[in-house]
Amino acid sequence: MDVEMKIRGLVMDPSTNMPIVILKDIRGDAVLPIWVGLFEANAIALEIEKTTTPRPMTHDLTRNVIQGLNASVVKVVVNELRNDTFYAVIWMQQDGETVTLDARPSDAIALALRCDCPIFVSEEVLRVAKYAPAATESTPDELRRWLEGLNDEDLGRYKM
Fold first, then answer.
1. Fewest beta carbons within 10 Å, which of 50, 76, 81, 157?
2. Which among 42, 13, 50, 156 has a CA at the least distance from the CA of 107?
3. In which region does residue 113 sit, left (phi positive, over 0), alpha (psi from -120 to 50) or beta (all else)?
C-alpha cells in the first residue's frame, strides 16, 4: 500500500549543509526526510516558490516532452530504500497504457510538482526508513527531535 504525501518543507541539514526534502503523510503523522543534492533541491524550490526562469529547466523540459508525447504523469512513488538510498518510480499514462520509469526521488518529486500529480511513499519504505541510519552525525532520535521541533518559519526558510 502507498501513502500519499505532501512536501512539508525544504530545509538544510545543520550537520552536513545538505538539503532535505520533508515529506508528510496527508492523513497521518508519518514524516519522511530525504536528503537531496543542491541542484535537485533548487529545482524543487523553484517550483514550490513558483519562480519562472527565462528558459526551461531540466524538469520543465521533461514535463514538456511527456506532454508532447501525449502522455501524462499520474503519480510518483518512493518505493524502495536500499543501502541507505531511496528509489522512486514515475507512473505515466499514454494512449491508455501505463508506463513506469525508474527515477531518483528528488527528480520524481520535482516532476510531480510541475505536473501537479500526487506523491506517494510505500508503507514498507516508511517502516524501514524509521530504522535506516541517519545521513548525518546525529543519532536517529536526535534527528527526529530536530525535525519535530521545526516550525513553519524554519520549514520555509530554504533558499538556493
1. 50
2. 42
3. alpha
- The residue-averaged pLDDT of 82-89 equals 93
Measured distance CA(83)–CA(147) in Å, rounded:
22
Give me 25's grid cell.
503523510
Q: What are phi and psi of 83, to 5 degrees?
A: 50, 45
Query: Could you report the per-residue pLDDT of 16-49, keeping only the tens digit for each?
Result: 888 999 999 999 888 899 999 999 999 999 999 9
DSSP-assigned states of every residue in 35-94:
E--HHHHHHHHHHHTT---SS--HHHHHHHHHHHTTEEEEEEEEEEEETTEEEEEEEEEE
d(CA 21, CA 13): 10
Domains and CATH numbers, the chain: 2-155 (3.10.690.10)
Contact between residue 113 and residue 47 where contact means Cβ atoms under 8 Å apart: yes
Question: Cα–Cα distance between 92 and 70 in angstroms, integer?
Answer: 10
Q: CA-to-CA distance for 61 and 49, rounded, in angstroms?
A: 18
Neighbours of 122 (CB within 10 A): 18
Asked if pLDDT for residue 155 goes beyond 80, the answer is no
| Residue 129 confidence (pLDDT) | 84
